[in-house]
Amino acid sequence: MAILAEFNQTLKKYGVSNARVVEFTLSDQEMPEMEGLSCNFSCWVSPSNLTCGIKCEFEASGTTGAKPAAIATPTAKKAEKAKLLAAAAAAPTKSAAPAAKKAKKKSDVPINIYRPNKPFVGKCISNEELVGPGGIGTCRHLIFDISAGDLKYVEGQSIGIIADGTDDKGKPHKIRLYSIASAHRGDYLDDKTVSLCVRQLEYPDPDTGKTVYGVCSSFLCNLKPGDDVKITGPVGKEMLLPDDPNANIIMLGTGTGIAPFRSFLWHLFKENEDANANPFWLPKLLGWVKPSDKPKFNGKTWLIFGVATTPNILYNKDLEDLQRRYPDNFRLTKAISREQKNPEGGRMYIQHRVAEHAEELWQMIQQENTHTYICGLKGMEKGIDEALSAVASKDGVNWSDYQREMKKAHRWHVETY
Ligand SMILES: Cc1cc2nc3c(=O)[nH]c(=O)nc-3n(C[C@H](O)[C@H](O)[C@H](O)COP(=O)(O)OP(=O)(O)OC[C@H]3O[C@@H](n4cnc5c(N)ncnc54)[C@H](O)[C@@H]3O)c2cc1C
Ligand SMILES: NC(=O)c1ccc[n+]([C@@H]2O[C@H](COP(=O)([O-])OP(=O)(O)OC[C@H]3O[C@@H](n4cnc5c(N)ncnc54)[C@H](OP(=O)(O)O)[C@@H]3O)[C@@H](O)[C@H]2O)c1
Predict the structure, then answer these.
(1) Taken in order 390, 396, 401, 404, is the CA torsion positive or negative?
(2) Is the CB of 255 within 6 Å of ligand 2?
(3) Residues in domain FAD-binding FR-type (predicted)?
(4) Domains assigned to the chain
(5) How confident is the model at residue 78 (pLDDT cuts 50, 70, 90)?
(6) Residues in binding site for NADP(+)
(7) Residues lining ligand 1, CB < 6 A?
């Protein structure tokens, strides 16, 4: 592409000779949403802070300017593909500047920026299936464009969704809450999106046996890129992350309970990595992503994740990738209920994994910088308490008392249903 040659020339002008620009093409088939748009490129170099990039402006129906809300941001998969291709470029990197330590007070957390009587209308950017072939049901990763409004959120919060249409009384549907699955900068690190992880509720009608589909989860799972979505919130202060970059984070989750944990892990690991690692990463080249000044996370995280089958392990590839890249900081333990057996021969649930690792978890929990989070099905709580109670009692500690103190110290966080 001519623009890449021009870019290379510009870099040379500033004495950057070891940069290699890799050519990549995104076909109409890979990015059908780009079809019919023309693109004006320009390249820029800032020698003062060693950054460079390619900017593009899309032109549709004779209008040039900001990228159109729902169409210009590639889907997560496509961005990942482009990122892999762009990653082949060797280039000078700039390390992140150390950041001032800023405490996140509960009073700083955004709450109810948009209320049900005046929701924000966002746009669906992408809707991707998370359940692999042979898995049970459907669960989608949804990304919404929120750039046209003031919606802000932090890791661990939820948003409300109002499904289109009316209920059987002709009234607008009530709000359903969904845990936010993206870190606060959004999946593209541009502060313009929010993501959800939504399972479509389906169950047999107790009287007729006919399959009933949940109203709001079906509305969300069937959204198409470009569709409007009414959003309220954000809400929730129970699942907030500590600011300490050396904290230990234990995450116990079932199914879609992974949503806040994805948000945590992306914030703690991927955000810095994506924003700082490769100046040739496409969203950065396009000027959508700014470098992160967040201090590197040095604590330990441990996710114990319960799902029904292997294809139901939501975000499995990303989680395994994190485990590979951060073996000292991220640990992943799976409980695959319908494939693995617990010691009694029944389904392997998350509480059985907690019992199996109880000694280690108890040692970790007793450290003052350890925070434990539980999200997903309420049914797991009793077993988790039993396992920790058994191990704590060996040290003469009453688990209920200890847990109460942890809650007071904001070190024990629960969002179960
Ligand atoms: C804080 C919070 C966070 C949440 N986060 C997420 C999330 O990240 N992802 C996610 O997918 N969901 C999440 N939920 C759940 C979500 O809010 C909805 O409850 C869910 O999507 C179902 O809503 P629906 O409109 O599809 O179902 P509805 O149409 O409201 O149907 C639900 C109703 O169906 C009936 N029903 C359900 N199952 C059965 C059954 N087996 N037999 C008979 N009747 C039944 C019950 O009456 C139930 O109230 C969260 C909920 C809360 C409170
Ligand atoms: N996550 C949320 O925030 C949330 C909130 C409210 C409602 N919901 C709704 O709840 C439904 C659940 O879907 P999901 O995908 O999150 O979960 P799921 O796929 O139904 O379950 C996840 C895992 O938890 C296991 N499990 C079931 N009962 C358990 C128990 N008592 N203790 C420990 N583990 C248990 C399941 O095992 P088996 O199935 O093999 O027994 C499965 O392995 C969805 O319809 C969703 O809308 C979710």
Answers:
(1) negative
(2) yes
(3) 117-241
(4) 2-86 (no CATH), 109-235 (2.40.30.10), 248-416 (3.40.50.80)
(5) very low
(6) 179, 199, 256, 337-338, 376-377, 415
(7) 158, 176-179, 197-199, 201, 203, 206, 214-218, 256, 259, 415, 417
